[in-house]
């Protein structure tokens, strides 16, 4: 009889110890899964990644996340390791939406949107991924997004992400459709040089300007969109072009554009040659809103070599127009 109670007590003790062990191992596993990134490699961070999956603590926003066709996040750094540009794009309801922020990295985190969003890089075993935890409005809600250079991950990488979401007690993640189209990368006008005063003064009246080139195409005939913010009014101009060597020509306009050399790693310098006697123009574009002084000086020197007026530099604090494609070809080139 005594041995029977001893056996029962032993079984009960084993069950108790196992339950205690499990209760401690689950939080420990979650603690390991949700560790902030110890060292942020800026070379690894650079470039564009696609949203693979995401979850939000606010259930009312989950449906909006599901409606997204695709989304991207991009980082680019200046020579100073502390100053970085963070860009986002989202394809929603067949329209592209863009946002750009200048941020300062602090360890494994950064803030943006006037301090309303605190973002932390979380560890992930995915080799080409970044995992971002967005703490919005002092913890009122949390967004948890996994980005990768690939459109589709291995199942074990998705499973790890799902476990991380579960550790946060958030809804199961929305996994994006890798077949959906991405928004083209947006490039912002930094400065413009003109050969005559009239065109230069017209350029100065623009608050901001961006260009969007389409994704890679097998045909040389394509189109691109320019978005101008002028007196708080947005103009969206779409042009059909034919790619030719290191440049392109506009359809319906006697204009040839040539890409010039620049040492700026994420910039384009475009020179507009107009055979119908319109003045020569040259523009500096970048994926950042603000470039380094040496990059501005190089562009100014290029303008000087073409006997153009000193370039006008855009104000990087001015608001950008949302992306919208006009269905008509522009009537004037300016």
TrEMBL record:
Its main location: secreted. It comes from Seriola dumerili. Coiled coil: none annotated. The keyword Nucleotide-binding does not apply. This is Apolipoprotein M. It is found in: Secreted. Keywords: Glycoprotein, Secreted, Signal. GO terms for cellular component: extracellular region. It comes from the Eukaryota. InterPro entries: Calycin. The keyword Ubl conjugation does not apply. Residues 1-25 form the signal peptide. SUPFAM superfamilies: Lipocalins.
């Amino acid at each position: 009889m005594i041995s029977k109670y001893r056996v029962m007590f032993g079984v009960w003790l084993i069950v108790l110890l196992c339950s205690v062990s499990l209760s401690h191992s689950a939080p420990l596993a979650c603690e390991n899964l949700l560790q902030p990134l110890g060292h942020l490699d800026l070379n690894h961070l650079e470039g564009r990644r696609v949203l693979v999956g995401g979850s939000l603590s606010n259930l009312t926003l989950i449906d909006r996340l599901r409606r997204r066709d695709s989304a991207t996040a991009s980082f680019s750094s200046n020579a100073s390791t502390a100053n970085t540009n963070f860009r986002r794009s989202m394809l929603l309801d067949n329209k592209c939406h863009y946002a750009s922020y200048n941020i300062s990295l602090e360890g494994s985190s950064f803030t943006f949107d006037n301090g309303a969003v605190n973002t932390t890089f979380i560890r992930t075993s995915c080799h080409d991924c970044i995992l971002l935890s967005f703490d919005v409005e002092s913890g009122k809600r949390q967004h948890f997004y996994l980005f990768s250079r690939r459109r589709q991950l291995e199942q074990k990488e998705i499973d790890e992400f799902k476990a991380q979401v579960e550790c946060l007690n958030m809804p199961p993640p929305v996994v994006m459709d890798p077949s959906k189209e991405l928004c083209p990368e947006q490039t912002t006008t930094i400065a413009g040089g003109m050969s005559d005063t009239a065109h230069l003064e017209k350029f100065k009246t623009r608050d901001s300007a961006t260009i969007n080139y389409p994704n890679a195409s097998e045909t040389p005939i394509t189109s691109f969109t320019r978005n101008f913010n002028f007196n708080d009014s947005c103009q969206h101009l779409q042009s059909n072009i034919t790619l030719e060597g290191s440049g392109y020509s506009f359809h319906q306009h006697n204009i040839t554009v040539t890409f010039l050399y620049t040492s700026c790693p994420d910039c384009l310098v475009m020179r507009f040659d107009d055979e119908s006697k319109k003045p020569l123009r040259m523009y500096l574009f970048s994926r950042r809103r603000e470039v380094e002084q040496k990059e501005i000086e190089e562009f100014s020197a290029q303008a000087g070599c073409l006997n153009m007026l000193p370039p006008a530099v855009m104000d990087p604090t001015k608001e950008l127009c949302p992306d919208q494609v006009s269905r008509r070809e522009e009537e004037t080139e300016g």
